[in-house]
């Protein structure tokens, strides 16, 4: 067995929209020698008999059994630069194809099998890719043409209204101060490091969508475009 990072605690895998499965769990990254503890999410999308994992999070044995009962994992989609911790585990377990934007860094021997690009191919019959053109690091959002439009994001769009059960107190205090706890937010850490410009968000708001499933925060269902639009108007004037 290759030396993968250990599995961390997580919740139940549940269907939040038809064909979209969502699971929240713990993340413990190291930043500047300090270990933070907060939540992260994985989204599983079913397209026919194929499953695609977005923003991978290693599941325990019960979770893997639940995943395997849904259908067959065929693809892994990497949307952001900081969510590769468990890609290698799933690539090894399922021999799944890795999709990512060109220039996305990988670890633990993982390489991209297929490139994500605006107007390019996706693992889905009804999918498209929004790529941030002004950000300094590769970052994308998936759009699925289902249920009025579903966006799946990584660090760019988040929906943490407040700390959840996966946070510890020091991380809560720090992230409160940094402005992470805001519904339909542009992730403050990503925004500060990647420095996306208003033109990207103006393009984003040209898309039709009703729902947002992010790597951070609760599912934002039915009212996502209005909520995201209000945030972008405040932050970027678009």
Written overview of the protein:
The protein is of the alpha/beta class. It has one domain (14-236): Metallo-beta-lactamase, Chain A (4-Layer Sandwich). 23% of the residues lie in helices and 27% in strands. The protein is built from six helices and 15 strands. The strands form four sheets. Strands 1-2-5-6-7-8-9 form a seven-stranded mixed sheet. A four-stranded mixed sheet has the order 10-11-12-15, with no helix packed on it. A two-stranded antiparallel sheet has the order 3-4. A hairpin with a 5-residue loop joins β11 and β12 (150-152). The model has no long low-confidence stretch (mean pLDDT 95).
What's the total number of strands? 15
Tell me the structural class: alpha/beta
Q: Please list the strands of the largest sheet in the order they lie side by side.
A: 1-2-5-6-7-8-9
Q: What number of domains?
A: 1
Helix content: 10-25%
The outline comes out as globular
C-alpha Rg (nearest Å) = 17 Å
Biggest β-sheet description: 7 strands, mixed
How many helices?
A: 6
Task: Provide a concise account of the structure shown.
By secondary structure, the chain is α/β, with parallel strands linked by helices. 23% of the residues lie in helices and 27% in strands.
Features:
238 residues, alpha/beta, Metallo-beta-lactamase, Chain A, seven-stranded mixed β-sheet, four-stranded mixed β-sheet, 6 helices, 15 strands, 23% helix
């Amino acid at each position: 067995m290759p030396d993968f990072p250990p599995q961390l605690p997580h919740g139940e895998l549940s269907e939040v929209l038809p064909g979209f499965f969502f699971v929240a769990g713990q993340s413990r990254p190291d930043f500047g020698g300090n270990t933070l503890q907060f939540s992260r999410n994985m989204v599983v999308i079913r397209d026919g008999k194929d499953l695609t994992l977005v923003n991978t999070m290693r599941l325990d044995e019960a979770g893997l059994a639940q995943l395997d009962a849904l259908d067959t994992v065929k693809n892994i989609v990497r949307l952001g630069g900081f969510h590769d911790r468990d890609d290698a585990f799933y690539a090894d377990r399922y021999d799944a194809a890795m999709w990512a934007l060109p220039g996305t860094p990988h670890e633990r021997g993982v390489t991209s099998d297929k490139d994500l690009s605006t107007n390019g191919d996706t693992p889905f019959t009804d999918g498209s890719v929004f790529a941030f053109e002004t950000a300094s690091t590769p970052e994308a959002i998936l759009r699925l043409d289902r249920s009025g439009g579903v966006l799946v994001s990584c660090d760019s769009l988040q929906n943490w209204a407040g700390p959840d059960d996966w946070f510890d107190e020091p991380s809560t205090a720090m992230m409160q101060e940094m402005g992470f706890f805001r519904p339909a937010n542009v992730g403050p850490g990503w925004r500060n490091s990647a420095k996306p410009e208003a033109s990207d968000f103006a393009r984003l708001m040209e898309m039709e969508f009703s729902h947002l499933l992010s790597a951070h925060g609760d599912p934002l269902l039915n009212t996502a475009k209005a909520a995201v639009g209000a945030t972008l108007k405040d932050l970027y004037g678009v």
